[in-house]
Design goal:
Layout (H helix, E strand, L loop, with lengths): L5 H17 L13 E2 L4 H5 L6 E3 L2 E3 L5 E2 H4 L26 H10 L18 H29 L2 H14 L1 H10 L3 H16 L8 H4 L9 H7 L7 E4 L3 E4 H10 L11 H18 L4 H6 L3 H22 L8 H4 L15
């Protein structure tokens, strides 16, 4: 028997593959004209077989016809490869705000229970926390959110910006002290300088010339300081009116409250007015991500996971102090309900 040279066989197969991949076909022509039979269609019965291939005078068997059923993607464990160029691009929601884009870039979507990479929240008090959360949602929707929306609708943006600058500046002494306790003298000096510049050139903090001088705005509290000192993992708890916290941060509230400049105001009506304005300002700052709460499958889980991730990011970035670790400005400030903004008995 005459053997077929390997080089000739290889050349013939390459030519066959090239012809199959470059053979032109008329637009709209049925698959049977290109040598592909459609399973279950009349074309399958009438499809012409491919021409025989002759190598050194011998005829090689023609390859079997390919049907649509054979070419369909496999299911189960055997998945057909997908061309990345043919994959549809992800849909873009034109209604997303910049704040929602920043939020999603930092935290992504809440991890599902089946996600192998999900890190479960330390929330052993979840049943009680959910009841408190339901109470806070009622208070927010009945009082806080309508007032914040009215504030945004009535007060011009430059005035709102000045109010936010004022309360951010008032929090600088607490940030300064906690940076000292965390062993960050360079950041503490910058925070102190920022407070002096904005309190003088910025007319009591209404303006922010310190940012024009490249003095970074940061917010630190005693809960973060406890995390730097080693209290890394703390169970989640939601407090009435104050909202998301951990047990560690509850102790942090007790440490920060006596140091707040707002709470040093002796006249109750003046202090309560300032605290009320601060609460409205903080709630208005969260309006840009309001739709994320409304569209969340489980609002409690979304808020809990986002708050814990934000808190962990703050503590870890303080520990590493690597460039680019700072949060966006709208997430850099204090919690939605700072301890100095809540009117409490005794000032």
């Amino acid at each position: 028997m005459k053997s077929v040279p390997a080089g000739s066989l290889l050349l013939g197969l390459l030519l066959l593959a090239g012809c199959a991949s470059t053979a032109p076909s008329a637009p709209g022509a049925p698959a049977a004209e290109a040598g592909v039979a459609v399973a279950g269609s009349p074309a399958e019965a009438t499809a012409m077989p491919a021409a025989p291939l002759l190598i050194d005078g011998r005829e090689l068997p023609a390859p079997p016809p390919v049907t649509v059923a054979d070419a369909a993607p496999a299911t189960g464990d055997r998945a057909a490869p997908v061309d990345p160029a043919a994959a549809p691009e992800p849909a873009v929601d034109p209604g997303r705000t910049d704040a929602e884009d920043d939020f999603a870039a930092l935290y992504g979507a809440p991890a599902g229970p089946s996600d192998p990479g999900a890190r479960p929240a330390y929330d052993p008090w979840e049943p009680a926390n959910r009841r408190v959360h339901a109470f806070n949602v009622v208070v927010d929707r009945a009082i806080a959110r309508p007032i914040a929306r009215a504030y945004v609708a009535v007060v011009p943006e430059p005035v709102r910006l000045g109010v936010g600058n004022f309360f951010d500046n008032l929090g600088s002494p607490v940030t300064f002290l906690n940076q000292v306790l965390q062993g960050r003298p360079r950041d503490a000096v910058q925070t102190l300088g920022r407070f002096v510049v904005n309190s003088t050139l910025g007319i009591g903090g209404l303006f922010d010339p310190a940012s024009d001088l490249k003095m970074k705005r940061r917010s630190e509290d005693f809960g973060q300081t406890l995390g730097i000192w080693g209290w890394r993992n703390s169970r989640y708890v939601e407090l009435p009116f104050f909202g998301p916290r951990t047990v560690r941060d509850v102790f942090g509230l007790a440490g920060d409250a006596p140091l707040s400049p707002t709470r040093q105001v002796e006249r109750d009506r003046h202090r309560i007015f300032l605290q009320g304005a601060q609460l409205v300002d903080r709630r208005a700052a969260l309006l840009p991500i309001e739709s994320m709460r409304e569209n969340a499958p489980d609002e409690y889980t979304m808020i809990r996971d986002a708050w814990l991730q934000r808190r962990q990011f703050q503590i870890e970035s303080d520990r590493r102090r690597e460039p680019g670790d700072d949060l966006p400005d709208y997430l850099q400030g204090p919690d939605p309900v700072p301890v100095d903004a809540m009117p409490l008995p005794g000032g």
